[in-house]
Each structure stands twice: as structure tokens, then as C-alpha cells.
Amino acid sequence: MSHQKFNLILNSREFITPRVMKFSLAREDGACFEYTPGQFITLHLPWEDMVLRRSYSIATPALQAGSAQEIDIAVTAVESGRATNVMFNLRPGDRIESTGPFGRFVLRDDPPVRYVLVATGTGVSPYRAMLPELSKRLAETGCSARLMLGVRNREELLFGADFEAFSEAHADFDFAPAFSREPQSGCHGYVQQHLARLALDPERDIVYLCGNPDMIDEAVVHLKATGFNNPHIRREKYVSSN
Predict the structure, then answer these.
(1) What's the first-to-final CA gap in the chain, in angstroms?
(2) pTM above threshold 0.70
(3) Tens digits of residue pLDDT in 89-124
(4) Domains in the chain, start-ordered, CATH in brackets?
């Protein structure tokens, strides 16, 4: 799928956690947005005498084959961040120049496997987009999946209701949040620390890692020490920028 340059119109925006705002966007030309779940778009944001380029994973489940009339992105507020200043001052009807979709952090044509999907914060966005395809694979191919999301506390459980509902509807899907700042929780700790508690199989499990670079680097060290090779480790780092 080739990428394009296009304008997006902001339809709506809302805080979905104390620090994360969801932006719902549509193409200005009215066309459906075509993408593979797991990909991202790049927004071109005017700032003083320059243009900031910021990339955000598409969080919208593709209800039809690789397309949606409206797409969601999740943006974390960064203190004194230039992109935060631009994005959080947008209002419905505003136009944003964009390019995309980009990225290879997608579900591939794998044999029956267990997908272990690991994320921190907004790194969970691509997994939300993958839910319809995961539903199909769970039903038809004998796959299973476990989603592990690391956040500070329960208030920051991004798209948690979606993943909990999906888990209730699919016996072969587990949703396992980890809370770094809730020591009283049975799910306390950083999400990468919970990988060591799983009976991971380097022959059958495929691990996706998305979000904080430190989380990803620590997880990769653990996975390679337990026999995983690169084809069974798929990663997308979110590099923070102001």
C-alpha cells in the first residue's frame, strides 16, 4: 500500500485518560482512509516558522477490508511540548496536512501461533486497530493472543474497556494490564517484568512490542536470552519529542 499526502479534518476530540486525548479525523476529500491495522500516519503541524512532523498509530479497528471513514489517534500531553501545544489547541473543523500510512508493524501471514502483544501507554493504539483481524484469526486459524498493557495506574488504562469487552467475547484472548504506580495491585510493576512470568515458547509465540524504547530494549534482551530470534520479535518504538 503506497502512502499519500492528504488533508485531514478534525471531527472531534476528547480526553480518554487524564493525559491522553483521542482525535477523530476524516479525509477532507471524503474518501475512505485505507490502511493496514498497525500502521501510522504523520501529521505536518505548523509551529512558528517551521513544520513539525509527528507520527501517530492509527487506533481505529478497520471494520471493512483495510479502510475506515474516520480514524482515531491517541496523543499524550507532553509538558511544554510544541506538538502538544498545536494538537491540544485544535478544534473541530480544523485542517491538518498528513501523509501515510506508513509502517510494517502489522499482523503477518503466520501459522497458528500465540500473539503476545505488549505495549506501554499509547503504544496500545495499533492493537486496538488489529482487533477485527485478531477476532477472525482466533475463530478460524487456531491462534490465541495475550495483550499486556503497561500504564501508571487504572485511570490511564487506554482503551481498556474495548480490550476487556474483546476478552469477554473471545476465550482465546487475555487482557493483562500492569500498573507501575499501584503497589497494592496484583498487577503491579513494569509490563516487561511480567514477560518473565509467562511460559513463553520461542517456537510458537510471536511477541509484538510497541511504545517506550526502554521497555522494548529490556524486553528484547529477555526474549533473546530465552531463545527468541528476530522473526518472532516485532517492535515499534515511540520516540518522545517536544
Answers:
(1) 30
(2) yes
(3) 999 999 999 999 999 999 999 999 999 999 999 999
(4) 4-102 (2.40.30.10), 114-237 (3.40.50.80)
